[in-house]
Structure formats: structure tokens, C-alpha cells
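Q: Predict the assembly, please.
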Amino acid sequence: MTWNIGGKSVQSRLLLGTARYPSPQIMRQSIASSGSEIITVSLRRESVGQHNGNRFWDYIKASNAHILPNTAGCHSVKEVITTAHMARDLFDTNWIKVEVIGHDDTLQPDVFGLVEATKILIEDGFEVFPYTTEDLVVAQRLVDLGCRIIMPWGSPIGTGKGLRYIESLKSMRHRLPDVNLIVDAGIGKPSHACQAMELGFDGVLLNTAVATAVDPETMATAFGKAVEAGRQAYQAGLMQSSDRAIPSTPLVGKPFWHENPL
Amino acid sequence: MEIQINGKLSTIPENLTISELIKHLGYRQGSIAVAQNQSCVLRRDYEHTRIAQGDDIEILAPMSGG
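A: Predicted assembly structure:
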């Protein structure tokens, strides 16, 4: 079923990063295996005489995926704004995944800088994909600024710990029913991605769990299926959990029962 | 003329435009993005944006990212 995200229509609800793969070929195969139609990229300095960026860009263009540039590594609003403009000029897209790093060890987003940068970028015509925490007030502020997409973390970037803030994520889903919610960061295994989708999240963005797997291509396939399974489960309606055991087999007509035992 | 290119001090000919600098350095236009003194220079402005002594130029290329 088609998913409308940031003015585009896609089939897959898995967004995949392009970093840390053993080789560009494995990256390209993994993107294809995952079924992802949205991939994240960055902008980095390129030394004179080196043309690694050219080769990477050629690989990315060949994937035919939608490009979601990020502002990874930016620590200030000024850096984010400049990087976003450079990305728009180079990649010909108004999409930007806004990251403002607030702490070098935890890579926790600076939500104050995020809100400030998002306001400027939305006024400038960008479709902002804000990487944020599980904080509902921040998410609501971003929506008020015009964000149609919110990307809270599951747990810190690269940790693979899964949905550490699950109650807050549930609350965010409940409070922001009309916003595209994407869990970004901290997803370590397909079951984490499936869990996020079962909560009713609209998509999942991940990178390291696929790129650093022993077999990235197969792991990409697994994540694609997990995201799809979680989405189907959410749409099908999950059963209510219970604190009491409830037999699933009917008691009526059970054998070896006698009204008057001998 | 001395300027900073990607954080390194560099000597370049006088009065170059961004377009001429890219060619001078051997970059492929269309696969890089340029900032001058922390502000983005759009591709359409490369031809008529001149570089001044002491400018801080960033030349960025597409790279992998999460």
C-alpha cells in the first residue's frame, strides 16, 4: 500500500542509511534487498585530487531511491542552515534530515537548536525530517512550526538498543495521529523495527544494524520484511494483553469429563 | 592570494570566481557543493561569485550517511 511521505509516494516504509557498509557494492545490494526507496546521505569535505564523492554519488544515483540528505555532525544552527542549503543545491531536493548534535558522547540531539533551525528551514521551503528525542513537547513544537514528519530516536545512534523510550513513543503516536512518525536511531534488530511499526509508527530509519551485520544484504531483506510485518500487524489490530491466563481451546465438550465419576 | 579551503591554508591566483576555483582545483562541477564564509553559494552563482583574500571556502561532496 502506498505511503505518502514529504510529498512523495513510496511502497516501503523502511528508510535506510548508506554509511558503514563493507563496500559500495554491498551497500547497493543491501538497498535493493531491503526494498527501501528512501536513503540517507551526507555532505563531507573532499580533498583536492580525491574523488570519492563522485564515485559514491554515482552509486547513489544508480539506486533510483529518493535522497534524504542529513546534517549529521552539525553542532550549531548556522552549520545546519548552510549544510541544508548546500544539500538542496547539490541533490535537487527540498528534503533535509535535520540533526543538531547536542552532546558528543551520547549524540543526543540539541532540541533547542533543532527547533530554531527547523523554523528557519521551513520558512525557506524545506521539508524537514527532524531527528529528535522522545519528548512530546518538542515534537508538538516542531509540528506547530509546520513539520509533517517527526523522527524520534528509539535509543541513541548506533547503540542498537531498540525502543528504550517505548511509553513516550506510544504517547507520541496517540497525541500526534496525523503526523508521519518515523523511529530513527537505536534500531538493532528486525524485531525492534517490527515493534515500532506495531506501535503504529509510519516508518523506521536505520543504518548500522544492516551495514555492520555479518551479511548486510540478508539483514536488509530481514528488516524489509520486519517493517512490513509490523505494519500489517498494526493495521490488523493487535489483541489486548491480559494478566490472566485464558484458554484458547474451548472447554465445552472436552473429553474424559464425567458428570458423576465412578 | 591566500584563502582557507576545507580548513587548510591555500594559495590561489588572484580574482578567481568560484567556477574558476573549482576548475583550478580539478573538481567535477555538479558533484560538489560550495560555501563561502559559512554561506552556501548556489551553482547558478558560481560564475559571478568572486573569491577574496582570506575567504573561508568549504567544498563538500556527497558521502555516505545515516
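Residues 18-25 of chain B form the longest helix (8 residues). Chain B touches chain A at residues 5-7, 25-28, 31-35, 38-40, 42-43, 58-66 (CB under 8 Å).
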